[in-house]
């Protein structure tokens, strides 16, 4: 009996010491309706590391002390979602977390601003992006006091989250290490000046993937490098009819997220070619990678940072922003292979063979009416 009681006490002590995992805010359409009359704004920072890959913990403990699992010497990825009128958890979130932590031993912070993004009033969510950025800047200031470095921060923002990342970058005078914009939101941001949206000056390196430029995304280039898969408009594999429901609206927009994940998780090399338009790229006019020196043409995704120096050099030298294009398939992992066939017509080569033909004609005393040079195709 005493042994039984002892074991029960041990189990109780363990359950008391193990705190519950943080969960992404579970909201619904009801919350969007409620927001029409009683708007609310809440931000939660959910921290994951390889020590707690499946159980989110708070970034800061009571008294503003830093969570012991956060390593200030490692890279920190800030993952920020976008507009969520239905209030649901992003379908890609858990897989994205898994892939990131598999890729590198890092800190991952999910910025849960669902209570602020869940609203039927899109303009309200847009205004909330500035509030989120201000709140994050205070958290970052606290991290800096604990020895963290802005250079180790990589913000990955989806849709409105991309512009939140840009606003954070502006508050730190562009000293963030990197910002990745995954199809930055277009409505209310297209045509805005650089201080009103994500811009390449917001971090030391800014890469952007555009996948829905004629819908929910933004068309104009924003980063040091802007990737336009399949031209950046319609993505293969996405529904073409409005009768497909919500997928018709969000599939193209979210493709940027899934392409970035695929680039991390698979061996696909999403090689992209600099060009002034997708039409020119499709005609094979843009297959020259010499401008990128020994690195060749850049690759979409996590690896894009390898081209940071040469891309910044292009901007510093000639204010040249880099837009690149690539084609993908319509199903995960979206791999596609590019082949370029180049046929060169060389006049000197033709002239050489023509001379040889006339020499052959003279050697064997062929009549002059035989036009040997006509045997060679232009």
From TrEMBL:
Keywords, ordered alphabetically: Secreted, Signal
Keyword check for Secreted: yes
Lipase domain residues: 40-334
InterPro entries: AB_hydrolase_fold, Lipase, Lipase_N, TAG_lipase
Signal sequence segment: 1-17
Family: Belongs to the AB hydrolase superfamily. Lipase family.
Record-given protein name: Lipase member I isoform X5
Name of the encoding gene: LOC101393679
């Amino acid at each position: 009996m005493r042994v039984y009681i002892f074991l029960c006490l041990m189990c109780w002590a363990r359950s008391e010491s193990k705190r519950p995992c943080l969960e992404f805010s579970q909201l619904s359409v009801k919350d969007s309706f409620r927001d029409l009359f009683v708007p609310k704004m809440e931000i939660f920072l959910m921290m994951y590391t390889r020590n707690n890959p499946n159980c989110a913990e708070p970034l800061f403990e009571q008294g503003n002390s830093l969570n012991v699992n956060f390593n200030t010497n490692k890279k920190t990825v800030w993952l920020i979602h976008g507009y969520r009128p239905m209030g649901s958890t992003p379908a890609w979130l858990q897989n994205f977390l898994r892939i990131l932590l598999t890729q590198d031993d890092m800190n991952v912070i999910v910025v849960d601003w669902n209570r602020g993004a869940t609203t039927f009033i899109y303009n309200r969510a847009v205004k909330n992006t500035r509030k989120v950025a201000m709140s994050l800047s205070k958290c970052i200031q606290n991290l800096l006091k604990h020895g963290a470095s802005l250079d180790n921060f990589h913000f990955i923002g989806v849709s409105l989250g991309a512009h939140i990342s840009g606003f954070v970058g502006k508050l730190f005078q562009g000293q963030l290490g990197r910002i990745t914009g995954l199809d930055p939101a277009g409505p209310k941001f297209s045509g805005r000046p650089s201080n009103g949206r994500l811009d390449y000056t917001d971090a030391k390196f800014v890469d952007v993937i555009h996948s829905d430029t004629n819908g929910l995304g933004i068309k104009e280039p924003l980063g040091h490098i802007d990737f336009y898969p399949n031209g950046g408009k319609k993505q293969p594999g996405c529904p073409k009819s409005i009768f497909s429901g919500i997928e018709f609206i969000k599939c193209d927009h979210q493709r940027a997220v899934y392409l970035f994940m695929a680039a991390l998780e698979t061996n696909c090399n999403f090689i992209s070619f600099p060009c002034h338009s997708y039409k020119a790229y499709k005609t094979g006019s843009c297959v020259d990678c010499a401008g990128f020196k020994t690195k060749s043409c850049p690759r979409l995704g996590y690896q894009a940072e390898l081209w940071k120096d040469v891309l910044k050099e292009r901007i510093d030298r000639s204010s040249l922003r880099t837009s690149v294009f690539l084609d993908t398939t319509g199903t995960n992992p979206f791999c596609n292979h590019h082949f370029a066939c180049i046929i060169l017509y060389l006049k000197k080569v033709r002239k050489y063979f023509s001379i040889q033909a006339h020499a052959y004609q003279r050697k064997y005393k062929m009549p002059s009416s035989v036009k040997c040079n006509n045997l060679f195709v232009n």
